[in-house]
Amino acid sequence: MKKLKRKIDVTVEKTDSGFSAYAGDLNVFTTARTIPALHRNLTEALNLYYEDRGYSVSSDNLKLNLDLQQFFQYYKVLNASFLAERIGMNPTLLSQYVRGKKTPSPKQTLKIVKGIQRVGKELSEIQLS
Known about the structure:
single chain, Double Stranded RNA Binding Domain, four-stranded mixed beta sheet, alpha/beta, 129 residues, globular, Lambda_DNA-bd_dom_sf, Cro/C1-type_HTH, HTH cro/C1-type domain-containing protein, 434 Repressor (Amino-terminal Domain), two-stranded parallel ribbon
């Protein structure tokens, strides 16, 4: 089997029992209690979808799309006030985005995402002794 080379856009939504995910353009859906389990279930479902086409799918092919509120509910280790300070955004404004009271513009969304990615990169490079 050939490895699929494209990214698959997946919409993730919080549910009462965990999370649901769907790749709408492919008509592939799944659910799970946690994000890591959702990744596994989604990879399995997509492999079944692509099996007849001769492709294999890995988690590298997934592009998960969460809204800010879901992101901060799941990744509680990242504090919105801390992030606002790091990206030079008013903490109250970011808090309103996180609570769903306001919707960020595409430019603000990109600023937030890049800030989250920078923090993630910094954390991944930490060595503890």
